[in-house]
Amino acid sequence: MSELSVNHLLGIKYLNKDDIKLIFETADHFKEVINRPIKKVPSLRDITIANLFFENSTRTKLSFELAEKRLSADVINFSASQSSVKKGETLIDTVSNILSMKVDMVVMRHPNPGASVFLSQHVNASIINAGDGAHEHPTQALLDSYSIRERLGNVKGKKVVIVGDILHSRVALSNIFALQLQGADVMVCGPKTLLPKYIDKLGVKVETNLLKALNWCDVANMLRVQNERMEVNYFPSTREYTQQYGVTMDVLNSLNKDITIMHPGPINRGVEITSEVADSNQAIILNQVENGVAVRMAIIYLLASKIKQ
Ligand code: NCD
């Protein structure tokens, strides 16, 4: 297969197995490109991309911008805090105005679940979802699986546990879909209050005991507690959360095998993992960041080739 089955990247749930394979093979090529002395290719010289961030972001925004620039696309950036959104403009009006400046592709992060699906139905541009509320974060899940494939050779058959605040995490949902599509065995682990009620319907194993989960897995993807999305207290205190769900070197050393530690960032050092764990050889957190650029280049390149047709 040489093209994606979709015209937008709205969520992993719209992709198939072959799409993921194609994205990874294309990312392998771009990973080689970004490790050359000249890290740029002229592929997208005729494409203009708008990065619209209605919610805060560091890594994802920089990673997309770098991916676009390394493909030689023209890039414009917009962040909601400095825009007319604050003056009451609607999402469609904001985006239509930007598109009338001849923009081909929109990368959007938005606090509302479904915002990018809505946009794809109303404007004429290719849309990439860079995170929509607690719903999906497809590029993060793809770079996570790509990083597992790089470290362990394959995603299929691997046991992956996602630990922490599953309830508020778009990274968790997209990872569950992506890992299952590739034939991994997926578990979620966290306090009951941070597991969604519909978790049984997602076909994942559920474990509330961290040690049991870590002894089972090949890979642990550690999530941040998303305090900014919590309107009530979901656990007694951060200290208690860390005691039960924080990964320390002692915890890792008590296991009968080496597991791979992942984190999408931003890390709350000393809460979900200690600094020693984050900086250890078992962690692939900075590889994830590096791979993020190559995977996003692949996605943008593949979607842009569909626009050009
Ligand atoms: C995540 C996000 O924004 O969903 N971060 C990211 O994109 N790398 C996870 C988080 O905020 O904890």
Looking at this protein, list some descriptive labels.
alpha/beta; Rossmann fold; five-stranded parallel beta sheet; globular; binds N-carbamoyl-L-aspartate
Verbal overview:
The chain has 309 residues and is α/β, with parallel strands linked by helices. The protein has 2 domains: 12-136 and 289-308, Rossmann fold (3-Layer(aba) Sandwich); 138-284, Rossmann fold, CATH 3.40.50. It contains 11 helices and 9 strands. The chain has helices spanning 17-34, 59-70, 91-99, 115-122, 138-152, 170-181, 210-216, 238-245, 249-253, 275-278, 285-307, and strands spanning 48-53, 74-79, 105-110, 126-132, 159-163, 185-189, 205-207, 219-222, 260-262. The strands form 2 sheets. The chain has a 5-stranded parallel sheet with strand order 7-6-5-8-9, sandwiched between helices. The chain has a 4-stranded parallel sheet with strand order 2-1-3-4, sandwiched between helices. β3 (105-110), α4 and β4 (126-132) form a beta-alpha-beta unit. The chain is globular, with a radius of gyration of 19 Å. N-carbamoyl-L-aspartate (NCD) binds at residues 59-60, 131, 137, 140, 170-171, 224, 226, 264-265. The site of N-carbamoyl-L-aspartate (NCD) has 11 residues, from α2 and α6.
